[in-house]
Each structure stands twice: as C-alpha cells, then as structure tokens.
Amino acid sequence: QVDVAAMARLFGYVDVTDTGFIVAVVSIAFNPLFWNVVARWEHKTRVFSRVFGSAHAACYCLGAVILLLNCVRSHCFTEAMKSQPKLECWDCHWTYYSGVAILAVGTLFVISSFLALGFTGTFLGDYFGILKEAKVTSFPFSVLDNPMYWGSTAIYLGWSLMHASPAGLLLTAVVAISYTIALLYEGPFTEEIYRQKQKGVKNK
Fold first, then answer.
1. What angle do CA 155, 156, 160 make, to 5 degrees?
2. 41-56 residue pLDDT tens
3. Domain segments of the chain: what residues?
4. Would the pTM of this model clear 0.85, i.e. be above it?
5. DSSP labels, 67-135
6. Is 35 in contact with 194 (CB distance < 8 Å)?
C-alpha cells in the first residue's frame, strides 16, 4: 500500500506553482503532442515531404526539431530541480550511485533503440512512408516494449535521484504519463500503417 503521509511529506518539498516547474511540465507535455500532431499531418497530407523535396529530408528535419525540443525539455527539467529543495535523507552516496545506475540503464536502452531502429525509424519515419520490412525484435525490443520512451524516463529518474530532488521525481512522473498517453495514440496508428502496407502487398 502507498504511504500517503510519506508521499505528502515528499511532495511537500515541491512548489508546483514555481514558474520553472510549470515551464518544465509544459515542455514535457508539449514534446509528444508536437511530434504526434506534425507526424499525423504529414501522413495525411505529405505536406512536409513536398516542401523538403523528399520524405527522408522531411523526416530528418522533424528529427532535428525533436532533438532540439528534447534538449530544451532536459534543460527546463534540470533548472526546475535546481530551483527547489533537496530531500536531505536522500542526499547521500547510496542514492547518488543508485541514480547513476538507473541513468546508465536508461541511456543503454535509448542508444540501443536508436541503433536498432536507425534515424528514420526512431523519428517517425513510418508516418512519412519510410517503412521497415519487418518489426524490430532485437535488443532492447526483445526485453522491453517501447524502450526508447522508458529508457528516457529512466534517465530522468536517475537524474532526479542523483540530485535528491522530489521535484525531479514528480516531473519524472509527468514524463511517464506523457509517454503513456502518447503510446495510446501512436501504437494503434502505427499498427494501422503497417496493416495497410500488408494489405497493399497482398493486393499486388
């Protein structure tokens, strides 16, 4: 069972009305909303492929924008943590090195996901009509669904523990919720894209 009193004490360290905290929440929520809206618009209209001259060029451009937004998100996350108090009982070597270990695992999942999918596979290439021949099942997809998202979440969790930051933990929860909501939309839509591909192959 969840210790409500402990949770209340933990988040008593967090000022959710702080401007930096609010900016971090908005940045976290905006990113998956942005790339889902843009990618679906591209899938429906092919407007970016026409503007950039090819689907690959358009996908690379979107990927660059997503990377930039992720840098902004990470900066806002870190600044929000720094502006709020640490939890004294967590400000120790054990918590710090636990955070380092979690961050390292998250980084492993993110990097290995990128290597397995490639640039276009990572940055919504299927919405641009750049489809893979088969579903990727190699590591880390062999041990975890959506390892890019959960690896990223683990990175923020580790970073928060390293800073003994209750605000960071709450923001990490926002990251996890944002990704969970994004997956509710991305998963079925991506499956439909590949279903249509298979239907087209069978009709030939």
1. 120
2. 999 999 999 999 999 9
3. 4-203
4. yes
5. HHHHHHHHHHHHHHHHTS---GGG-SHHHHHHHHHHHHHHHHHHHHHHHHHHHHHHTTGGGGT---SS-
6. no
